[in-house]
Amino acid sequence: MNDFINFCRSRWAAFGFAFKGAYDLLVNHAPSKIHLAAFVFMMIACTVLDFPLWKWTVVIICVGMVLCAEALNTGIEYVVDLVSPDYNILAGKAKDVAAAGVLFASMSSGVVAILLIGDALLNG
């Protein structure tokens, strides 16, 4: 029984670390605030345009994908800054490629948003 209790406590602590990271990401990083603003806009659009469940699902997946990419990018930036405080061309490339992941996620989510909103406006 003690093993189970210890397991549950360690899982609870892991959630705490994840929420701590989410707080850091959302409070201390300007790009995340832009993504949150886009999320709020899409929630309003989904409500006003009375999106069906499948469209809500697509929007939530896109939002999760963008926030996940932003979190991974920020984590990579933290590690690169830790191990390479001085300028290094490979460190710069690592950060650039991680940022490209956020760009791809954001652009594809933007296209999805345009398609979903456009469909709702044109086809009611």
TrEMBL record:
A GO molecular-function annotation: kinase activity
Q: Which Pfam families match?
A: DAGK_prokar (PF01219)
Q: How does it sit in the membrane?
A: Multi-pass membrane protein
InterPro entries with a match to the protein in the record: DAGK, DAGK_sf, UDPK
Which superkingdom is the protein from?
Bacteria
Family, according to the entry, reads as follows:
Belongs to the bacterial diacylglycerol kinase family.
Q: What is this protein called?
A: Diacylglycerol kinase
